[in-house]
Amino acid sequence: MVKRNWILGAIFTLIIFYGVSACAPPANLPTGPTPIPTLIPVTDVPDITKPTQAPSFAILSYPVRPPSSNEGQSIYIENCVDCHGEDGSGAVPGSRNFQDVDYMRGETPANFYAAVTEGRGDMPGYNDTLTSDERWDVVFYVWRHSTTASILEHGDEVYAKSCASCHGEDGSGELLGSANFTDLRQMDQLAPRDLYLTVTQGRGSMPAMQSLLTQDDRWAVINYLRTFSYDPTLPQEIGVASSVGETPTEGPSETACQPDQTNQFEWDDSEAIFDGQATYLIQCAMCHGPDGSGGLPNTPDFTTAEISNALIENPGQSYCSVSEGIGVMPAFGGALSEDELWQVLTFMGSLGEP
Ligand code: HEC
Ligand code: HEC
Ligand code: HEC
Fold first, then answer.
1. In whole angstroms, what is the distance from residue 3 CA to residue 79 CA?
2. 119 C-beta neighbours (distance < 10 Å), count
3. Closest residue (by CA) to atom 19 of ligand 1?
4. What distance in angstroms lies between residue 257's CA and the mean position of ligand 3's atoms?
5. pLDDT tens digits, 313-332
């Protein structure tokens, strides 16, 4: 790695020595048969109702480690800053403003990688001068302009609370067909607004977040979940951003579960039932059915007296099952606090026929 950077550094020095400025097209002409770059239509005005068009460019090379904004920064300064500006807002006419979130939300990392590889308009292609890994790094340096460390931190909190139970703390959860957020191959063609649409409206068994999260929460969590497939850390933000992209801290209920514990709430505590229902609808209804009678195979029918009495008589056992997971049911101990777990169980206990 270090060695390769040295060699590349030497190559750059040579290129600069021979007077090819970063803004001019590369002087070297293709030697062998070069594939004709496919034309990608100019980005349309983002239309949130249509899925983003997949790039016609086939990406053949993915990095082994997640692309790093930090690594990309020096590549950017060396190759791109003259045209795109120090802050990414554009220096030459026609270059894009990477801080413009409306533009960035319609873009995909795959499209950016294709642009940097092939060139676009007055921008040269970097297929011959940057390695594939370096192109990914610089793409995600550019990408990083569309968010801030504090937004990512906020997104981290939203994720831990509303998403981690299904998608996994590390974003790799593949429960019931949900995407693996750590896999760049699954993420690089998804524009932020595609993800926003899924999160807002829900999809398949995933609940709609429209009425559960504010717009800012939804955008923040989308910016955050992207960091499962790249490292957003930047040198000047190490203090703030180093917590971002790492596994969230342990949930509150990590201690060994006590199956003989009792409910902290009265079973007819209407406030607990009310709060529990809200949690239930987000986290549990997809499998247990909106009314608790069961949806997914093997889910007990909580509307029967038999099941709800069993829950009320032996709540510690159920608490541990939900907290630690059982069968295909994921563990909720990290996502829900002890109070929230008891509230949702109190709600479920209220569903049985009297
Ligand atoms: C010679 C000036 C120049 C240089 C050098 C340059 N760019 Fe560009 N770049 C442009 C212009 C102009 C556009 C707009 C192209 C168009 O869509 O017509 C652009 C567009 C882009 C886009 C958006 C593509 C899209 O589809 O919207 C990305 C991403 C990008 N550049 C990244 C980079 C990176 C990364 C580097 C350095 C490795 C770089 N550029 C170097 C001028 C340049
Ligand atoms: C109750 C479980 C559950 C919760 C909670 C949940 N998801 Fe999902 N999510 C799923 C499932 C299941 C899918 C796959 C849906 C399908 O394709 O049928 C999915 C799909 C997605 C996708 C689509 C990925 C793609 O391939 O396009 C995104 C993005 C997503 N979830 C984000 C989130 C975010 C952000 C949150 C938290 C705000 C969240 N999810 C909460 C279960 C959940
Ligand atoms: C991915 C689907 C799924 C989700 C989401 C889910 N469950 Fe379950 N749950 C199941 C299945 C399946 C079972 C039966 C497990 C078994 O016995 O193997 C079950 C069992 C249970 C039981 C009985 C466990 C026992 O030991 O008596 C309780 C209580 C329960 N779930 C509560 C919840 C609560 C509360 C939530 C939301 C916080 C939730 N579940 C979310 C699928 C799910």
1. 20
2. 16
3. 95
4. 16
5. 989 988 988 888 886 677 78
